Amino acid sequence: MAGALVIGAGPGIGQAVARRFAREGLPVALIARTKETATAAAESVAALGVRTLPLVADAADETALRDALDAAAGELGEPDIVVYNAAAIRPDAIGELSHRDHVDAYAVNVLGALTAAAHTLPAMARRGRGTFVVTGGMPDMKPQYVSLSLGKAGVRALVELLDAEYGPSGVHVATVTVGGAVAPGTAHDPDDIADHYWRLHTQPRERWEREVLH
Q: Which residues of the chain have pLDDT under 50?
């Protein structure tokens, strides 16, 4: 049975989204940068009674990410929904980071999402259904978070491009833009944010949203 695939399954939004889909009975593949994080996420989700598959890949490593996506499809089938939640979050001012550091941040914040989309959306388009959601942020650009602001702007552009390419084939592409620091019990509680992902996945086509701001 195909289910959900979460890339960037660390504590916070990633695991909250995985649990949200698990509560609906979907099996979940969880990709994280370390084995410890992937295993902890899978154990948390498996407690809800669904099949889980922990996988390890750095979202900035194209080969490793594609291998993990293939492993997930091989075990659980082509996913019904893919969530790209990986991000390189760090404070940095204008001119503070080297060119190389900016490239590394962009590789996680945007290019990993592009790789995941290119690898999974064609199959969704052939089936005529599926959902691809990217976790966004920085609704207002912040000069103290330059690399992240650039990355989240890139995410918006990517979602627009993917929607234009795959939306007509029945694939819902969207971003959930989080407008603040994520923490339980706050206005940006990860469990509350996770509800948006399920709602986007179940929206009828005539009501599709491309961006949700939380």
A: 1
CATH number at residue 208: 3.40.50.720
pLDDT 10s digits, 6-54? 999 999 999 999 999 999 999 999 999 999 999 999 999 999 999 999 9
CA distances from 143 to 133, 148, 177 (A): 26, 10, 18
Give the count of domains, the chain.
1
Q: What is the mean pLDDT of the chain?
A: 96
- 43: closest CA among 34, 24, 30? 30
Q: Which two tokens stand for residue 86?
A: 């990986």
Tokens of 40: 């902890």
175 φ, ψ to 5°?
-130, 140
C-alpha to C-alpha distance for 7 and 38, rounded to whole angstroms = 10
**C-beta neighbour count of 33 within 10 angstroms:** 19
CA distance 156 to 179: 14
Q: Are 69 and 119 in contact (CB under 8 A)?
A: yes
Q: Model-level pTM?
A: 0.96
Contact by Cβ (8 Å): 149, 190: no
Which residue in this structure is represented by tokens 């948390």? 44
Residue 114 corresponds to which tokens in the numbers above?
């592009």
